[in-house]
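dude i think i finally got it to work??
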Amino acid sequence: QTQLVETGGGLVQAGESLRLSCTASGRSFSAYAMGWFRQAPGREREFVARIMWSVSGSWTDYVDSVKGRFTISGDNAKNAVFLQMNNLNAEDTAVYYCAAADRWYNTMYRQSNEYNYWGQGTQVTVSS
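look at this
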């Protein structure tokens, strides 16, 4: 069984930074993409960022609201992904979920149903 474990959440003030980490354990797999989603109270889970890998390299993608503030990186060999979050604001408050996809789709990997492994989530709270 494959498990994803997130760490790094917490309570910060607006303008501060956090770094989330996600690592896989258990049955090994080869990820085509790993990403971060978030869910705020009363809202649907939304795409935040993802990194894709192929023999040609890696590509990243972000939701518009975090561009320029968040940076996703990863280690494909270790099935690990990280999210550096800078200049956080109250709208970033949510439970952040790590996800991994070991199935190839000819898509942008922005939809939650394209991912088949999920972490348990880590709370990020930003006070204003």
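The mean pLDDT is 95.
im so relieved honestly
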